[in-house]
UniProtKB/TrEMBL annotation:
Coiled coil: none annotated. PROSITE patterns: PROTEIN_KINASE_DOM. The keyword Chloroplast does not apply. This is Leucine-rich repeat serine/threonine-protein kinase 1. It comes from Takifugu flavidus. One of its GO terms (molecular function) is protein kinase activity. Residues 1-79 form the Protein kinase domain.
Amino acid sequence: MFSYGMLLYELLTGRRPSLGHHQLQIAKKLSKGIRPLLGSPEEVQFCCLQTLLTECWDTKPEKRPVALQCLRQMQQPGFPSLRYVLSCDSHAQLFLSPLQGYSAVFWSGDKDSRNYSIVNVEKGNMEVKRISCPGSRISCQMKMGNTLWMTTEDQEVFIYSLKDMCPLSQPQKLFSCPAIITCLCPVPEREQNPARVFAGMSDGLVAVYSLLDGLPVEGEAYLCSHTLNKTMFGLKDSDPRQNPYPVRCMVLVGSGSQLWFSNGPGVLVLDCWSLRAVRRLDPYVPPSSVVSMTTSFCAWEEEAVWMLDDHANMLLLYHAASYQLCAQYW
């Protein structure tokens, strides 16, 4: 297994292991536990393979894994995808989205002790560590252009002007909302329509904020999932799908023309500009609730929507244009 560890070293580094030119010199170094230089996990960017090879060339042969153990490790689903493990202390919340680029924001604490740290997930290093930012516990966060939207469990929305996401000073705008915001989704401006932000809430409402110079203007609109289900899709009040489900996720579809948002076991499809509900999908049945959605372009170069529930743990794939279920995975 020692030789296998050296083989893994070559795979990771692209060079042959070298500890000298003479056999006696090399043997002495190996007996003292000296090994070829490998670099930090962030530099290697293949944490599982690096860990395995260091186990294989352990100084004590009895501590080295046998071939069957190596095989089982390498067959684990996370083995080929885990790049590195980064120590970033204990945090309560993580916010990560494509809109934030390579920045992952960790929050911990509450009230006066609330603080945040920022990790660059591409470089694998912590750029900001535990910067104080007093306030209530964060419920949702979104970066939009050069502003950061933060919502709290006290039903408040803070909008900060950003410079590399640090530090957060006084907000440009602060306002209250009728319920806790659970997810945010920005819609860029289009022709005569201003940019908007959709905010899903814990009581099933969806708030629609129109923006001017990146900030919301007065007169936001509210859409009620219960009302849409009843008036547009004929669901009765006694229907379990009419329970007051929180809006847990939302995603833009059709180049930003539609908003798909979760409604318990179902999904409501909204026209982003007319704010008209155009479709209801029922991918799951109670007690399942949709907890995550994302879009992608499939092999046939058409948009697809992926969704996952919290009960059956079933992944579904929908064709976005036709609303047809294409595949399901358990």
